[in-house]
């Protein structure tokens, strides 16, 4: 838990903010460059498949995978990112759990605004169930916007009458498109990655004029989480989106849901990506893997 490590990561993420909003192409290229610096475990096996109507990357551990599937939703503000940019997270999760991961290449805004991403992730989950996978052996996991999709996809699945997965893991999830959390103000300047302007820029592409207060856009503000499976929320104190997690945890508790709010001090958005650079990243992934292993095993025995 080195202060020097945290300072190194902060400096990597902190850069001058351009006077004009960046184009979509620039945002996507910059994110690919950033994530290419992240460590991906050696020995993992990957191949592209089709899940529902979308491509997905199957990520398997070096050893034969156990009886569990992590359905993974990558981050990127619904505008950028891919299963490739999330490979450090999926790769580490499969190595630490022994389960396989299926990372969904859902459609992105502005070409495909809300609700395209949720349609794709729900379609992927439905296809996984149709293939014979048991919900007790499936967990949703995701980071940032994809962390938000873990919750909204579960909402959509419940509304569609589908069984819910065994567990949900969300790394620094984006859960409030209204941007009304107090941390939007209290962490401004402390957060090395985001500004309100940058969040509003990509958020508007996804919203495309929709009311942000609806549950599928702002579950931390308006979702009913009744009947949800156990949830693990991991977030850092240096995030403008910190209160997305704290408020969703409160809603989950009010709904009688088993929820763990795992807050790490002095780390940025999706700090789990910095495995090998930041001790807190490796430790958080260990906790997430333990949570997934416990929940999938318990549900398998019960189911």
TrEMBL record:
Domain of life: Bacteria
GO molecular function, one term: triacylglycerol lipase activity
Keywords, in A-Z order: Hydrolase
Entry's family note: Belongs to the 'GDXG' lipolytic enzyme family.
Domain Alpha/beta hydrolase fold-3: from-to ranges: 70-272
Record: active site: 144
UniProt name for this protein: Monoterpene epsilon-lactone hydrolase
């Amino acid at each position: 838990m080195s202060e020097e490590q945290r300072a190194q990561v902060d400096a990597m993420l902190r850069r001058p903010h351009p006077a004009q909003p960046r184009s979509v192409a620039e945002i996507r290229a910059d994110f690919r460059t950033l994530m290419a610096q992240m460590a991906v475990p050696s020995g993992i096996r990957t191949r592209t498949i089709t899940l529902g109507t979308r491509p997905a990357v199957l990520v398997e551990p070096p050893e034969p995978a156990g009886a569990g599937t992590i359905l993974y939703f990558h981050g990127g503000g619904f505008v950028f990112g891919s299963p490739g940019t999330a490979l450090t997270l999926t790769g580490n999760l499969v190595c630490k759990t022994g389960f396989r991961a299926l990372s969904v290449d859902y459609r992105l805004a502005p070409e495909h605004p809300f609700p395209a991403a949720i349609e794709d992730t729900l379609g992927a989950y439905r296809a996984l169930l149709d293939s014979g996978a048991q919900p007790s052996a499936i967990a949703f996991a995701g980071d940032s916007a994809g962390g938000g999709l873990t919750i909204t996809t579960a909402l959509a699945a419940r509304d569609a009458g589908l069984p819910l997965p065994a567990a949900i893991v969300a790394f620094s999830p984006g859960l409030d498109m209204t941007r009304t959390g107090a941390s939007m103000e209290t962490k401004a300047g402390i957060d090395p990655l985001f500004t309100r302007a940058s969040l509003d820029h990509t958020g508007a592409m996804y919203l495309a004029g929709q009311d942000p207060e609806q549950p599928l856009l702002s579950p931390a503000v308006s979702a009913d989480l009744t009947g949800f499976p156990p949830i693990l929320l991991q977030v850092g104190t240096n995030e403008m989106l910190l209160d997305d997690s704290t408020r969703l945890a409160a809603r989950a508790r009010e709904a009688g849901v088993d929820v763990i709010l795992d807050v790490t001090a002095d780390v940025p958005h999706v700090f789990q990506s910095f495995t090998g650079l930041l001790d807190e990243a490796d430790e958080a992934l260990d906790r997430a893997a333990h949570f997934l292993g416990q929940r999938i095993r318990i549900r398998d025995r019960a189911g």
